[in-house]
Amino acid sequence: MAFRTPYLMFLGDAPDELAAKTAIGVRDWRPEWCVGQLRLDGCKADLKLPDMSPAEAAAAGCGTLIVGIANRGGIIPDNWVDPIVQCIENGMDVASGLHRKLASNPKIAEAAEKHGRTLTDVRHPTRDFDVASGKKRTGKRLLTIGTDVSVGKMYTSLAIWRELESRGVKATFAATGQTGIFIAGNGVSVDAVIADFISGAAEWLSPDADADHWHVVEGQGSLYHTSYAGVTLGLIHGSQPDALVICHDAARKTARGLGDKPLPSFQEVIDAGLWAARNVNPDVKVAGISINTKSLDDAAAEKLLKETEDSMGLPTVDAVRTGVAKIVDTL
Amino acid sequence: MAFRTPYLMFLGDAPDELAAKTAIGVRDWRPEWCVGQLRLDGCKADLKLPDMSPAEAAAAGCGTLIVGIANRGGIIPDNWVDPIVQCIENGMDVASGLHRKLASNPKIAEAAEKHGRTLTDVRHPTRDFDVASGKKRTGKRLLTIGTDVSVGKMYTSLAIWRELESRGVKATFAATGQTGIFIAGNGVSVDAVIADFISGAAEWLSPDADADHWHVVEGQGSLYHTSYAGVTLGLIHGSQPDALVICHDAARKTARGLGDKPLPSFQEVIDAGLWAARNVNPDVKVAGISINTKSLDDAAAEKLLKETEDSMGLPTVDAVRTGVAKIVDTL
Question: Residue A134: its chain B contacts at CB < 8 A?
Fold first, then answer.
């Protein structure tokens, strides 16, 4: 997949900003691709982009309608269908992050067929993968791993990718989840591939490259999260990282969705990550720690970053507050 | 799924015994369910069962035709279709371990529809799974893990299950691969589920049970095999093992399918397995080591088992040569 840009961002009747989290991520990281938003009555989210009808968006050159909002059960509500069909009629492709496939709606499927437009469901792999070969590839790879799920691995990966590019280093962001895929314009939802092919998909995502090129691979799950650790291990083995970056959310005290299960320590995450990565790359290093300190005031955030840096002996940043330059300096 | 027994074993025109490996496993572990074999011209495999036509098998009470042979690309050759259809016409269900689904063949699909028979493809999950909850379940669980793939984890698991049953202990064999599923009559091909649900499938496979009941869970892959380790880790987390048994093949020197990659040591496999399992069960123990010594003569096998037992300090058996009593003694 490789979406036609720019994007029209579909917000539907999102009940709050949180429901539009994916669209917000795309707007933040690809402002140059986001030319307008399409909102329905009752929409409580706002990307601060011009509101556009399908015809206006087409006139503005939009190539793809991005359905980047969450919905109960991942279904396509009836009131979304007409505006989506109108975008197709106006020449746009549609890319969706919903669980339910776009083509499962007969009107949307018919319109796409009739107008020769592409429907892409980024949560569903659009190709088959080989079983991982384990063969050493050329180029460099960085992978983010976490103390838990949803602790800022995507944000940190994107910040590192941008920092590398700003320094003139050849770099590619390898997206492994829906928001990242809209931002990269391609990628694979690795948690949605068949279990046998997790590491094969990760190999495909970060192929041979120039010796001085960095693939910055978006991490998923956590080796300690008992619901998703298989995805994480396959991703580590397939991405053959030269560098790991440990991500954490200062507000997280217990594993998300697992009751009162405590989080692992930084040292446990480092040890497990290096154990897994050394199986494919004996020279792997931990390049730093990235902590989301949004829940802390400036003084508390500074203190935590400093203390972590001192105790762990690793560059420690907040990708938002401090940027990731300190980590990129080590690469 | 729960197949109607007894079975008619379909061997097709298997070019050698190896192609019939699955059928041989079923015959070995469920002789009471295997009443006949159906072979076509040129078949070079033989289960030493009575050759039966579909009509003869139906008369003998067969409930399910088991397609337990491997075929290039996992497809259904043209010359298999008529005999499979004849079994359906004679009232049998069909269960297949091929990659290609039975219903992808129109004649087979039509016959099943017309006669109200069930087609089951054991490589394809027949239900959806929840994301793993990580909640502690009642009952005891044993899981086999390996130094590599295909080193005897299924065979060892089956032998332990039988040994437990023979001692009057309540035990269930939880099948995670195609041969195991035919033997158990149910199960899940965990390597074929969507990556996010590996550990959820393993939880489903070994649900709450009586405090003195053992689920003996068939292991898959290896934490050190870079193609499949994600499946292995998800299976460990989902099965919450109280006991691990380490499996190895004395003839295996390098990881299967990964070139000259060396195998991990027993200690590495034990350390990694305990690390993973302690995340869900702090009290997990290694109950023993099971080595396939088929490649060795009696003296060499005895020496290897003795040396391994002494150096590792764990009961060490060959599930075929010595049986697994020594391991079951520790449970």
Answer: 226-227, 258-259, 261
Q: Chain A within 8 Å of B118 (Cβ-Cβ)?
A: no
ipTM of the prediction: 0.91
How many CA atoms, within 13 angstroms, populate the side-chain half-sphere of residue B193?
Answer: 33
Cis peptide preceding B54, ω within 30 of 0: no
From the candidates B198, B199, B226, which should be mutated to test the interface with A, based on the most A CB atoms within 10 A?
A: B226
Q: Does B125 touch chain A (CB under 8 A)?
A: no
Helix, strand, or coil (residue A298):
helix
Question: Is B234 within 8 Å of A237 when comparing Cβ atoms?
Answer: no
**Residue numbers in B near A74 (CB within 8 A):** none
Is A193 within 8 Å of B194 when comparing Cβ atoms? yes
Cβ atoms of A279 and B222 within 8 Å: the answer is no
Q: Please judge whether B193 and A190 are an interchain contact, meaning their C-beta atoms are less than 8 angstroms apart.
A: no
Distance in Å, alpha carbon of A55 to nearest chain B alpha carbon = 39
Contact assessment for residue B125 and residue B198, using Cβ atoms and an 8 Å cutoff: no
The residue type found at B215 is H
CB A226 within 8 A of CB B134: yes
Contact A198 B230 (CB under 8 A): yes
This prediction's pTM:
0.93
Instruction: State both tokens at B203.
Output: 């939880």
For an interface test with B, give the residue of A99, A121, A188, A194 to mutate (most B CBs within 10 A). Answer: A194
Taking the C-alpha atoms of residue A322 and residue A325, their distance in angstroms, rounded to an integer, is 8
Query: Is B39 in a helix, a strand, or coil?
Result: strand
Domains detected in chain B: 7-121 (3.40.50.720), 140-328 (3.40.50.300)
The beta-carbon neighbor of A227 closest among B134, B228, B258 is: B134
Contacts of B46 (CB under 8 A, 6+ apart): B11, B17, B37, B39
> Using a CB-CB distance cutoff of 8 angstroms, which residues of chain A are in contact with residue B198?
195, 230-231
DSSP-derived secondary structure for B150-186: SSSHHHHHHHHHHHHHHTT--EEEE--SHHHHHHHS-
For residue B278, give the H/E element and its range.
Answer: helix B266-278
pLDDT tens digit at each of 331 positions of chain B: 689 999 999 999 999 998 999 999 999 999 999 999 999 999 999 999 999 999 999 999 999 999 999 887 778 999 999 999 999 999 999 999 998 999 999 999 999 999 999 999 999 988 889 999 999 999 999 999 999 999 999 999 999 999 999 999 999 999 999 999 999 999 999 999 999 999 999 999 999 999 999 999 999 999 999 999 999 999 999 999 999 999 999 999 999 999 999 999 999 999 999 999 999 999 999 999 999 999 999 999 999 999 999 999 999 999 999 999 999 999 9
- B209 in reach of chain A (CB within 8 A): no
In angstroms, rounded to a whole number, what is the distance separating the alpha carbons of residues A38 and A18? 17
